[in-house]
Amino acid sequence: MENKNFAEPLLERAEEYARTSYELLKLKTVDKTTEVASAFASRGIALLVFGLFAVMLNIGLALWLGDLLGKVYYGFFCVAGFYGITACVLYFFMHNFIRRKLADSMIAQFFNK
């Protein structure tokens, strides 16, 4: 009889501990998820603004080069050629490096705090 009275509070505490641990895990998961999502969202907005700036700059550069070369479309060909060469260099020589850095950044963002 005494063993039953002794084990019952212990089981109740274990059950309460399990519920509390589960709630804590849920809260930590929500915290990390919102932290990572907000970081990606803020970086995404910054990239969008930078992308618009880059587009406008490239259009201006292409028009200026086209004016110097005599035909407007020559400037656009020059800018497109520059980006084509840059894309090839990045893909063939730096693809793994960039992929690894991005993966490390995501992992660090998720597990650090």
Give the helices and strands as they follow along the chain: HH
Tell me how many strands there are: 0
User: Strand share of the residues?
Assistant: under 5%
Overall, the morphology is rod-shaped
Task: Average the pLDDT over all residues and give the rounded result.
Answer: 88
Brief characterization of the structure:
The chain has 113 residues and is mainly alpha-helical. The chain is 96% helix and 0% strand. The chain starts with a helix and ends with a helix.
Account of the 3D structure:
The chain is mainly alpha-helical and 113 residues long. The chain is 96% helix and 0% strand. The protein has helices spanning 2-69, 72-111. Helix 1 (2-69) packs antiparallel against helix 2 (72-111). The longest helix has 68 residues, at 2-69. The chain is rod-shaped. The mean pLDDT is 88.
Features:
mainly alpha; about 110 residues
